[in-house]
């Protein structure tokens, strides 16, 4: 199993972080792929395999921790690339919501 669960949508409240600049104040840390719940069910294979997929965005995935669960908000392609490379962890910015 790669992820804890494959979800659809964001079950947590709006947090106001829209752009990579908004997320810049959230420090990155390692998270285990098996602890993540996705917020997207589909992905673009071309985006997954692109070498420059993070060129215009944040180098780190965006994760929201809400009610003890880690939701992968942005970075599904990075997470799957890590899994394909047999890496069990991913560097992500984790925003904790109360």
SSE layout and pairing:
Blueprint: E1 5-6, H1 20-23, E2 28-32, E3 36-38, H2 45-49, E4 61-66, E5 69-74, H3 76-84, E6 89-97
Parallel strand pairs: 1-3, 3-5, 4-6
Antiparallel strand pairs: 2-6, 4-5
Organism: Pedococcus bigeumensis
Pfam families: VapB (PF23719)
Protein name: Type II toxin-antitoxin system VapB family antitoxin
Beta strands, count: 6
Helix fraction bin: 10-25%
Compute the separation of the termini in Å: 28 Å
- What radius of gyration results from the CA coordinates? 13 Å
Mean pLDDT: 89
CATH overall fold name: Conserved hypothetical protein from pyrococcus furiosus pfu- 392566-001, ParB domain
If helices are DSSP runs of H or I spanning 4 or more residues, what is the number of helices?
3
Output the CATH homologous superfamily: Conserved hypothetical protein from pyrococcus furiosus pfu- 392566-001, ParB domain
Given as residue ranges, the uncertain stretches (5+ residues, pLDDT < 50) are: none
Largest sheet: 6 strands, mixed
Q: Specify the structural class.
A: alpha/beta
InterPro entries: VapB-like_prob
Pfam families: VapB
Protein name: Type II toxin-antitoxin system VapB family antitoxin
Region (Disordered): 1-23
